[in-house]
Amino acid sequence: PGKSKAYEYDIMELENYTRDKEWMPKVVMIAKNVYVWMDQLSKKYKRSITMLYEIPNEELDQLKEWGFTGLWLIGLWERSQASKTIKRWCGNPEAEASAYSTYDYTIAHDLGGYESYKNLRDRAMARGIRLACDMVPNHTGIVSKWIVEHPEWYVSLHYPPFPSYSYSGENLSGDPNKGIFLEDKYFSRTDAAVTFKHVDFRTGEEKYIYHGNDGTSFPWNDTAQLNFLKSFYLTVSKHG
């Protein structure tokens, strides 16, 4: 309640990051959306390239020749398949899950897993190219390993934040013990709800977990917002 105030940065604001002087000023990086890149490579080389270990040496040689020393691979992690389901429910029949709707921080199974990644990493390093990837500390996928095991880690309420919200759609969880339901008006495109419904069928407990958001746009309906204050609260309650 009350008047909102925009955060102001001043000259005393702490720059709390490392300058990484040993490598950052020298890196020349190219970003590749992994699935898009491998589709392009499949067409270029006229064979199926779907695993990281199948990326041709010729491509790495070309990157080295162009002077790149870093390869940023977008979409390495195991994605929440609920993200793909939501996109297809909402009218995009060819959509894949978002790279930023993560299920778990393991190399995606359909990219060949860790051994496939290690193969690419070693071949790239032999050419002086380091691999980079994203991490998403703000949120996870709407269905993720953490949502299943630790729903208390997320920003949530025990009631819908707005009385107009309803959650009568299909269960996205894929787990017989859990229910995850998107708010109905996403499908009619008449509202962009800030929460989804999480149900533990074993206990009957319901949570209304907030979607991920960075404060600049609508909620991302295939994500769940982590609660960074949770660890602070637990520390205070434990140590006073």
Automatic annotation (TrEMBL):
Entry-linked Pfam families: Alpha-amylase
Stretches assigned to the Glycosyl hydrolase family 13 catalytic domain: 58-150
GO biological process annotation, one example: carbohydrate metabolic process
Descriptive protein name: Glycosyl hydrolase family 13 catalytic domain-containing protein
